[in-house]
Amino acid sequence: MRTLLMTTVFIVSLALMFTMPGEAKTSIEISSIVEVSGWRYVVDVSEELVDTQEFKKEPPYTIGYVTIFMDNTWSVQMKEEIAHEVSKHEDLIEELIHLDASLETASQISAIEDLVARGVDAIVVDPISPVAMEGVFRMAQENGIPVIGISSPIPTEQVTAWVGRDDVEYGRVTAQWLVETIDFEGNIIALSGIAGNPVSEQRWEGAEEVFEAHPDINLLTREFADWGFSQGKSTMASLLAAYPDIDAVWSGGGAMTQGAMEAFVDAGRELVPMVGEANNGFLLDWIEYSEEGFSSIAFNNPTNHSAIGLRLALKALNGEPIPEVVNATAPYIFTLEDAKRYVRPDFADGYWVGTELPEEILSDLWAD
Q1: Is the pTM of this model over 0.70?
Q2: What is the CATH number of the domain that holds 128?
Q3: How far is CA 334 from CA 143, 158, 170, 286, 329, in A?
Q4: Which of 1, 109, 223, 249 is the most buried (most CB within 10 A)?
Q5: Same domain, 79 and 146
Q6: Cα(56)–Cα(166) distance, rounded to whole angstroms?
Q7: What is the rounded distance in angstroms from the CA atom of residue 88 to the CA atom of residue 92?
Q8: Using CA atoms, how far apart are residues 363 and 114, in angstroms rounded to an integer?
Q9: 10-residue block means of pLDDT along the chain (368 residues)?
């Protein structure tokens, strides 16, 4: 009955696309929406479609791939995702050029300019800034190069399309869980990723909204720890010395939570509720310390954003309409039961759960 109902709703939805005045979509547009919606970890796509006819050209293609930094395991795994996706399209893709910004806005601007000068056919980029990159993104597209933004939020008018997740919702949902867990009162430490990065700021925007709505929640401090394990551990070690009464830790993700947990353990302090993200090291520690009463919730941030971005770029180069926004994050929130289901005890801490990589590549990357 449930399958029949879902099928009926889907058919009705397609019919409405065809018949609603001023909003009817062509069969090609509907086909594109259905295809992209079926990609792994995609939870929804925008109704707005991008006409990519101006970017249509014949293969083989050279694709530019630009990252913010490669100093954490999430970025490493995301690079492997796009490289593996390239291997599936050897008939279309001649070369993948990867340039990294090393956390420097000027370096990422130069990387885009370099790729345009080298005549790449499309660019997939994790944008370092929602403001500073606008000019070079416009320049690239004016030169007939589709620009697909991934992961870090960027205004949609600056890029051809964007793949990511709702970071404000991340902050809001995880903060709400945290305040409920400590009965709406107590002292909270906040750890964020990279200062000024749109992911860090949007996640904090959602969390801060929740904390400010509860007058008995006292935010002791917010510190930046670059999403790293060692940075999270050292930052929390200093905070433990400064604040003897900490009731909970909100974390903006990455490996910071795992580092914060280790700092608590090393200091002989009882673990408090913390927010995490679904990387293997944190999941392993969560499961271990849950037996001592540790509680958490984890957000899933798939590393296949780069692979999805490449697929959208290929569709654009073929002149196909593509969704303006693709939200890829399922399964969204991890409970302890989810952690036990997805954890990989045979892999190193650096493994991230949301991946399309085959077992062979994952083993090469993360097998102990």
Answers
A1: yes
A2: 3.40.50.2300
A3: 43, 32, 12, 11, 11
A4: 249
A5: yes
A6: 30
A7: 9
A8: 34
A9: 37 41 76 93 94 98 97 95 98 98 96 98 94 95 98 95 94 96 98 92 97 98 95 98 98 94 97 95 96 94 96 98 94 87 96 95 95
Domain with 176 in it:
167-299
